Amino acid sequence: MEPHKVTSREEWLEARKALLKREKEMTRLRDKIAEERRALPWVKIDKEYVFNTAEGKKTLAELFGNNSQLVIYHFMMGPDWEAGCSGCSFLADHLDGANQHIKHHDVTLMAVSRAPLDKIQAYKKRMGWDFDWASSNGSDFNFDFHVSFSKADVEAGNVFYNFQKAQDPGEEMPGFSIFYKNENGEVFHTYSSYARGNEEVIGAYMLLDIAPLGRNESSSMDWMRRHDEYEAQAARRSA
After folding, report:
1. Which site among 1, 67, 93, 125 is 20 to 30 Å from 84 CA-CA?
2. What percent of the chain is predicted at pLDDT more than 70?
3. What is the pTM of this model?
4. Quick check: 136 pLDDT over 60?
C-alpha cells in the first residue's frame, strides 16, 4: 500500500465536503434509477411453474403467500451439487436480516435453486439460514429466467445472461427476479438483475467500500469464503 496523504483537520474537512457533494449526487441518481425501475413495463406470467418447498409443492403464485410482491434470489446450486455457490452464500448471509423487516412490508423473499429439496435443506441447515428456499428441479423456471443453461449451450457459447451473450458462463448463474400478484391472482414479472447488479444487497461490500482499504480484492470475491470455512489467520492486507 502506497503511503497515504496526511493533512490537517481543516484540509481534510474541505476535501470531505467536496466528496459529500459527489455522494449526494450518487444518492439522488440512485433514487432516480429506482423510480425508473418501478416504471418498467411488466410481463404477465401465463406459464405454470411448480416448485418443491418445505410445505409441499407450490405454484409461482402460491410462493407469494399473503403478499403481493415476490423477490426471488436465483441461488447457484445445481442438481448434482453438494453445497451452494460460495458467492451466493456470501450474499445469502445478508438475507435473513432484511427479511425480518420486508416480510412485514408486503414482500415475500425466498431463494430458488435447481438442486433437489433435500440437498437444499441440508445446506440451509449447515449455514444456519431462516429464509425460505424452494427447488425448481424438473421445472423450466431457471432456464426461462436465464440463470441455468444446458451443458450443450455453454459449450457452444450460446448463453444469454445479463441481457446479452455471455462470455465464459457456467451452467448455473446468480440473479434476482421480481414478481407482482394482483387481486385477481395474476402474476407479472417486473424486474430482474444479474452479475454485479446484485451487489446492492451485500451489506459487507457496502461496509468495505467505506473502509480505508476498500474491497481489497484482485478479482470479485477472491478473498471470501463460506462463513463456516474461514481459517484463523491474520487480517488480509493490501500488497
Report:
1. 67
2. 96
3. 0.93
4. yes
Within this chain, do residues 99 and 32 fall inside the same structural domain, yes or no?
Answer: no
Q: 58 in a domain, yes or no?
A: yes
Average pLDDT over residues 33-53: 98
Helical (H) or strand (E) element with 100: helix 95-102
Q: Which residues of 164-189 are buried (b: 16+ CB within 10 A; e: fewer)?
A: eebeebebbbbbbbbbbbeeeeebeb
Supply the mean pLDDT for the chain.
Answer: 94
User: Cα(113)–Cα(58) distance, rounded to whole angstroms?
Assistant: 14
Provide the CA 125 distance to its chain's centre, in angstroms. 20
Q: Is position 235 within any domain? A: no
Question: Is 216 inside any structural domain?
Answer: no
Give the E-state strand segments of 100-186 in sequence order: 107-113, 132-135, 160-161, 164-165, 175-181
Per DSSP bridges, beta strands 50-53 and 56-59 are antiparallel
Q: Using alpha carbons, select from 189, 197, 199, 193 the residue that is nearest to residue 224.
A: 199
pLDDT tens-place string over residues 143-186 = 999 999 999 999 998 999 999 998 888 999 999 999 999 999 99
- Using DSSP bridges, classify how beta strands 187-194 and 175-181 pair: parallel, antiparallel or unpaired: antiparallel
Residue 50 lies in a domain: yes
Q: Domain of 25?
A: 9-38
| Same-domain pairing of 26 and 50 | no
